[in-house]
Amino acid sequence: MHDDIQEILLSEEVIQNKVRELGKQLSQEYEGKNPLCICVLKGAAPFMADLVRRMEIPLEMDFMAVSSYGAYTQSSGVVRIVKDLDTPVEGRHVLVVEDIIDSGLTLSYLLELLRGRNTASAKVVTLLDKPTRRTTGLKPDYSGFEVPDAFVVGYGLDYAEKYRNLPYIGVLKEEIYSV
Ligand code: XMP
Ligand code: MG
């Protein structure tokens, strides 16, 4: 285990089993729909890469980068599109792939934006959900795990751009972000 990690919340095996399960479910759900899977960069990249390989149906991938203005470990609700999609989404079944939903502000904004472009459907799959932090009515359509209100890193999630490459999800030692 990495020295900066206090506790492993979700092991690599537990994550991969869940990703397989979600992939199977989404394969059934999106059969014949050629969904456009949208990865929200950067955090969702590992999840997206693993998930699409467990979806055994024709699909397309695209990437979006957004940044929320505001505090470091908190989202402010003001979302800026840093990289937009390359693919027109009108009439498409889009599936937004997220790493974690916290307040839900980022996703509420994104879904509204996508639906405004006249998608056939716009749904969300998130690996992690922190429902106790929700300030919006947003509910993910598909979700891997509920996590407690702690700052978690690994499997895409970062602190100051570090730890994204850990194959598991863990809680960072407090001394790392309190200095
Ligand atoms: P909102 O509040 O808009 O925030 O749902 C979603 C984004 O906030 C980040 N986030 C985290 N990142 N560990 C992280 O590394 C966490 O525990 C955490 N909680 C929220 C993340 O970028 C997510 O997309
Ligand atoms: Mg994110």
From TrEMBL:
GO terms for molecular function: glycosyltransferase activity. Residues 14-159 form the Phosphoribosyltransferase domain. Signal peptide: none annotated. It is found in: Cytoplasm. It holds the Pfam family Pribosyltran. It catalyses: IMP + diphosphate = hypoxanthine + 5-phospho-alpha-D-ribose 1-diphosphate; GMP + diphosphate = guanine + 5-phospho-alpha-D-ribose 1-diphosphate. It is an enzyme of class 2 (transferase). PANTHER family: HYPOXANTHINE PHOSPHORIBOSYLTRANSFERASE, HYPOXANTHINE-GUANINE PHOSPHORIBOSYLTRANSFERASE. Purine salvage pathway enzyme that catalyzes the transfer of the ribosyl-5-phosphate group from 5-phospho-alpha-D-ribose 1-diphosphate (PRPP) to the N9 position of the 6-oxopurines hypoxanthine and guanine to form the corresponding ribonucleotides IMP (inosine 5'-monophosphate) and GMP (guanosine 5'-monophosphate), with the release of PPi. This is Hypoxanthine phosphoribosyltransferase. It comes from Salinithrix halophila. The gene is hpt.
